[in-house]
Amino acid sequence: MSLPARCDVLVIGAGPAGSSSAALLHRAGYSVAVVEKQKFPRFVIGESLLPRVMDLLGEAGLLEAASARGYTVKRGALFLRGAQRCDFSFADQFTRGWDHTWQVPRADFDKTLADAVEQRGVPFAYEHEVLAVDFSGPPAVTIADSAGRTRTVRSRFVIDASGYGRVLPRLLDLDQPSRSPPRQAVFAHLRGDQRKPGPDQNRIWIVTLSSGAWAWVIPFSDGNTSFGVVGPLECFKHYPKEPLGCLRAVIAGDPNFERLRNTEFVFEPRTLGGYSCSVKSVHGPGFALVGNATEFLDPVFSSGVTLALESANRASKTLIRQLNGEAVDWEQDYAAYLRRGVDVFRTYVSAWYDGSLPEIFYGTRTSEPIKRMICSVLAGYAWDLGNPFVAEHERKVAQLARLTA
Ligand SMILES: Cc1cc2nc3c(=O)[nH]c(=O)nc-3n(C[C@H](O)[C@H](O)[C@H](O)COP(=O)(O)OP(=O)(O)OC[C@H]3O[C@@H](n4cnc5c(N)ncnc54)[C@H](O)[C@@H]3O)c2cc1C
């Protein structure tokens, strides 16, 4: 579909944050267009979802389309360190919410969401790249097609959902260094994973490695399994430098990966570093940032798509109120809300890497009621202030770490 010359809202990026923003705004009666640099389906990492995603897809009217794809159902997560195990089941949660979600090949998932929104009449311009923006008056966005021809789209508002492309942070000088130390990920999809038949055969595994890194194992319903290793840069000194050798060495070096020993790589393993990022502000006159264009912490608790959808949901609702003529306070109504959830996850990510959270997980002194509260954070219910491990996240995690040390 071609781009209109004018619309109420221009969305940059057709990932989960972009598609769900477009769905919500379209449903509220506003004209929306989506501009996307790549051709879909396209690969992107970030395949393990959290139950909170189901609420957010439901609100955007996208749950049905995703359900129809038959993705692997994710009912919890299993953390492993040598022979130690810590199993979280989303059925055993403090917060009342979904007890499952999915493990999704993102190429398929993102295309499914985008197609569902396009079918409602929202124009998506693929292989069109945003090059420049002008916010000196009503927003004007310069877009180039794949042949290099440029044009300008005018709108009342721009939502930047460009993920790692970070379009507005770059163009408006909003980038700010992340507080997280630099980490790296090496990952691929594997064929031939010997899954042990039983109720846990499709469980996502997060395996703590002796090098200080950790690895994920995410089984998909098409038989392939996503496998990746993440850690501070110094951990990678223990493995061959080239990605294939690195992943092979990780698989050979831990008995937990016995099931992966005879696998083939579906594509050349990829390396991604320096992915943690932050911004000075997530909104400004005429624009808001959503999803990974705002801040990205770390993959360990699979919070990326949840935060992408949560931010898209909140920003779109704030914008709908503004377009309806209400006075809105973007700092309070959007930025502060988003920060609350991001800060909760930040506490758990920091405690994971400083070693205190693994001790809590693998130790035997964490009571079931506390485990249920932590499970709700891991399910993405990071805004439930009724949960002490959300409301007082820093204090509670530090206190528990002292008790379990
Ligand atoms: C190693 C690793 C593992 C991860 N694992 C998980 C996980 O298990 N679970 C999870 O939830 N998250 C995970 N994440 C995070 C996840 O990848 C992101 O949080 C998620 O993809 C964000 O979605 P989004 O919609 O904001 O952006 P994206 O999905 O990145 O979409 C942005 C879109 O914008 C487009 N775009 C970029 N520039 C332009 C431009 N100039 N013009 C037009 N379009 C443009 C891009 O082509 C892209 O399609 C992981 C991240 C890393 C680094």
Number of domains: 3
Low-confidence stretches: none
Report the biggest beta sheet as strand number plus sense, adding barrel if it closes: 8 strands, mixed
> Which structural class fits the helix and strand makeup?
alpha+beta
Assembly classification: single chain
Q: What fraction, in percent, of the residue positions are helical? A: 25-40%
Chemical compounds bound to the protein: flavin-adenine dinucleotide
CATH-defined fold name of the largest domain: FAD/NAD(P)-binding domain
Query: At the fourth CATH level, what is the homologous superfamily of the largest domain?
Result: FAD/NAD(P)-binding domain
Fraction in beta strands: 15-25%
The name of the CATH architecture of the largest domain is: 3-Layer(bba) Sandwich
Radius of gyration: 21 Å
Write a short abstract of this structure.
Helices cover 32% and strands 24% of the residues.
Report on the architecture of this protein.
The protein is of the alpha+beta class and 405 residues long. The protein folds into three domains: 6-72 and 102-177 and 276-341, 3-Layer(bba) Sandwich (FAD/NAD(P)-binding domain), CATH 3.50.50; 183-273, D-Amino Acid Oxidase, Chain A, domain 2 (2-Layer Sandwich); 354-404, no CATH class. It contains twelve helices and 20 strands. It has helices at 16-27, 52-59, 63-67, 106-118, 167-171, 243-252, 304-323, 330-353, 356-362, 368-378, 388-391, 393-404; strands spanning 6-12, 32-35, 72-74, 76-81, 84-89, 101-103, 124-125, 129-134, 140-144, 150-160, 175-176, 183-191, 204-208, 214-219, 225-232, 264-265, 270-273, 278-279, 283-284, 287-289. Strands 1, 2, 7, 8, 9, 10, 19 and 20 form an eight-stranded mixed sheet that branches. Strands 4, 5, 12, 13, 14, 15, 16 and 17 form an eight-stranded mixed sheet that branches. Strands 3-6 form a two-stranded antiparallel sheet. A hairpin with a 5-residue loop joins strand 9 and strand 10. Helix 1 (16-27) packs parallel to helix 4 (106-118) and helix 8 (330-353) packs parallel to helix 12. The radius of gyration is 21 Å and the shape is globular. The N and C termini lie far apart (58 Å). The mean pLDDT is 96. Flavin-adenine dinucleotide binds at residues 12-18, 35-38, 44-49, 129-130, 161-165, 167, 185, 228, 230, 272, 275, 291-292, 296, 299, 302, 304-306, 308.
